Amino acid sequence: MTKQITISIFKNNKWRLVLQVLAISSLISCGGNKTVSSEQEDKAQELQQLVDSLVRDVPGTVGVAVITSEGDTVAVNNDVRYPLMSVFKLHEALAVAHELDSRNQSLDSIMTLQRSQLSETTWSPMLKDYPKGDLKISVGELMRYILTVSDNNASNVLFDSIVSVSHTDSFIRNLGIPDSFRLQYTESQMQRDHAISYDNYSSPLSCAALVKRVFTDSIVSQEKQDSIRQWMGKCVSATDRMMEGVATVDGARLYHRTGSGYTNERGEIIAINDVGYIIMPDGRETALAILVKDYPGEQSQADSLIASITTSILQFIR
Fold it and tell me: What is the pLDDT of residues 287-304, one digit of tens each?
């Protein structure tokens, strides 16, 4: 029999721990069941205390969620609504893949894009690859652009042509992901009004739970889901965040989606995020989400903070 224990700890109504320990069923010689060990509970508590200490006194608001191979889930500052920025392109890619499955279409399906559909003033490496005229491009290539280089034009096209933001929100919600998230706006809408970036939000735990599902469950057809995983492994945006922390462990692999951008009226960076799935050299796997909201310093400082948190968590897990 599998037993689930959930412990919630509040500190000054600000800090929240959600500690979930899954007791692993095992038969013992007398035929009884063995519940989760106190040693496993202690380790999970130690991980929570570590994460708590890493984010307690830093500028801005930092939320962290960790889901380990052992089944322990730790989330700190999980009650805050963190703007997702381009992290939502993972949600988008999954919804696009699901829509293609429903139409019995492949990633090779070709789209023709008019130049007038594309913005010259947004982040779009795709425009450098297609500098002139209209574009004939596959849906899979557009998905590759949003997951590897966070291309905003590609994201806008997919939302406008394949699946809406509201449909994406509903699809992810129906997966059973913790519902502390909301998707309402496209990149083009947020570019016009930076303030609405706060309305595309998530808790760290929702992000970590989603990325874990991507790597441990079947969400869309195998070919499409394998492609999404591969593109996450080739993400080259913000390499000085989680990727820098993972690099401290020889042989560890990272599959992730980043997000950052815009400055609010107080001069703070609205969001600096990294959400990833880490496979250690010994095969153990960890879903990790680090979300930073309203950071008052330089982005490079927040990048280093995410790298440092990642490093500390991985050293503990090892």
Answer: 999 999 999 999 999 999
Count: domains in the chain: 1
3-class DSSP state of 15 = strand
Among candidate residues 211, 209, 204, 218, the one with its CA nearest the CA of residue 176: 209
Quote the tokens at residue 228.
């999404």
Strand partners, 269: 263, 295
124 in active site? no
Q: Using the structure block, give the residue that is written with the tokens 């990833």.
A: 276
Other CB atoms within a 10 A radius of the CB of residue 310 amount to 28
Asked if 212 and 232 touch (Cβ cutoff 8 Å), the reply is no
Q: Which domain holds residue 201?
A: 4-317
How, if at all, do strands 61-67 and 73-76 pair?
A: antiparallel
Cα–Cα distance between 59 and 46 in angstroms, integer?
A: 23
**Tokens in use for 67?**
């889901």
Q: Could you read off the pLDDT of 109-168 as tens digits, one per residue?
A: 999 999 999 999 999 999 999 999 999 999 999 999 999 999 999 999 999 999 999 999
Q: Identify which of 48, 53, 54, 67 has the alpha carbon closest to the alpha carbon of residue 7.
A: 48
Q: Which of 26, 38, 86, 155 is labelled catalytic?
A: 86
Place of tokens 């998230």: 181
Distance between CA atoms of residues 142 and 137, nearest Å: 7
Supply the Cα-derived Rg of the chain in whole angstroms: 20
Residues 6+ apart with CB under 8 A from 204: 63, 64, 65, 75, 76, 77, 78, 82, 289, 290, 291
Coil, helix or strand at residue 181: strand
Residue 301: other Cβ atoms inside 10 A: 16
Q: State the CATH number of the domain containing residue 92.
A: 3.40.710.10
Torsion over CA: 226, 286, 243, 75 (sign):
positive
